Amino acid sequence: MALDVSRRTRIFNSSSVSSEDCIFCKIVSGKAPSLKVYEDGEYVAFLDIQPFSRGHTLVCPRKHGETIWDMDEAETAGLFRVAFRVSKAVVAAVGADGFRLVQNNGEAANQAVPHVHVHVIPVMMEDKGRYGGRMSFSQQEMESIAKSIREKMKDS
Ligand SMILES: [Zn+2]
Question: Which of 56, 64, 115, 117 is the catalytic position?
């Protein structure tokens, strides 16, 4: 039986925007640049431009919604199904030893962009237990990482 969450229906984000002003909607539609590694009719995966590690990828639904409560259970399951596949490609592409799936809902949970997304963050053994800051890679490096992940997605 599904948990009753009807008492609260909205999760607060002070950065709430309409889909017209949403950066991820622009990425999904191609109006804003991104390095996509996977897309299908419902979901898109692309590199985080301020990654926590090499290969840090975001997976989001094409349809705008702020939190997973704006999606139904099947859409949420689909999002994680894609994240599962992307995790295998990301780990293989960067040779990671582990990975984290992070999905933040609401400003209190550190959700920075108000469009549902799952972080796929590969982790190396030497970074075990370390929660470092955002990193930056050159455009050339980012393109090379994206290319490797895309190739691994074909194998998955
Ligand atoms: Zn959006």
Answer: 117
Task: Please give the Cα distance from 111 to 58 (Å, whole number).
Answer: 13
Ligand 1 center to 63 CA (angstroms): 7
Q: What does the DSSP assignment read for 57-69?
A: EEEEESS--SSGG
pLDDT score recorded for residue 131: 74
Cα of 83 from ligand 1 centre, angstroms: 18
pLDDT in tens, 93-124: 999 999 999 999 999 999 999 999 999 999 99
- Spatial distance between the Cα atoms of 31 and 27, rounded to a whole number of angstroms: 6
Tell me the domains of the chain and their CATH numbers: 19-155 (3.30.428.10)
- C-alpha 69 to ligand 1 mean position (Å): 14
Asked if 117 is an active-site residue, the reply is yes
Who's near 151: CB < 8 A, 6+ residues apart?
Answer: 93
Tens of pLDDT, residues 77-90: 999 999 999 999 99
- Considering only CA atoms, which of 125, 115, 124, 131 is closest in space to residue 28? 115
